[in-house]
Amino acid sequence: MLRDLLKAEQPVIxxxxxxxxxxxxxxxxxxxxxxxxxxxxxxxLERLATSEKSPSDNERHCxxxxxxAAKHAQALLHYGFPLAQAVNDYGDVCRVISEVxxxxxxxxxxxxxxxxxxGSVSAxxxxxxxxxxxxxxxxx
Length: 140
Fold this sequence. Notes:
By secondary structure, the protein is mainly α. It has helices spanning 2-21, 28-50, 55-78, 83-103, 110-131. It has a single domain (2-132), classed as Globin-like (Orthogonal Bundle), CATH 1.10.490. Helix 1 (2-21) runs antiparallel to helix 2 and helix 2 (28-50) crosses helix 5. The longest helix is centred in the middle third of the chain and has 24 residues, at 55-78.
């Protein structure tokens, strides 16, 4: 189950995420701060996976994810990162979770993929809202 995987494998997930997402040279303090925010996202996904699946439960968990994602976006903005970094962060976390699940012989079910999608979309939308007009399209 997704919630069990997130709880048991959080250190592995975060280590892989950090290696993937922050291969560039950034001060350790910046990487630590951003990774702590992503750690919170993983914990929030665990709570979302554990919820009763009622609309009000999902709404409550997604609101918490959105609030934390807005703070993550603020930190990224502060350090000069584009919105694309926030999008990549949430996508990378979900990819790492899927990889770890497969490696443990427990690929995610369709319902569990939907949970990851719901969480990551909530986070990405909140980050995009936080960036607002400061988000620059790579195509402009």
